Amino acid sequence: MYVDAPKITATPTGKKVVENGAVTLFCRASGHPTPEVFWRRAGRRIAANHQRYTVVTVQQGGVAVLRIEPAKPRRDDSLFECVAENGVGEPATATARIEVYPEGQGEKAC
Fold this sequence. Notes:
4% of the residues lie in helices and 54% in strands. It is mainly beta. It has a single domain (4-101), classed as Immunoglobulins (Immunoglobulin-like, Sandwich), CATH 2.60.40.10.
């Protein structure tokens, strides 16, 4: 049986979101055995049962989705990290920055 260190195959992309809006990050990883994929913010793992964060993982596919709703400027304006680990080599990581702007400012509809 072969083993393969984890690698991120679909990286999360940075997003801008209006205060109290919703934002979703997506990450996919591969490796053998299939890696566990999870999210961290400020070096701490995000719990699946967090009040404003919804974490969905599909372990067979090495997929992790993070949804933040409602987004808060001081709490969520941050760097989020997708981590994949399977016990082979070093964990693989990819980061995405969430920018939260106040309602009535920032992005204008075209």
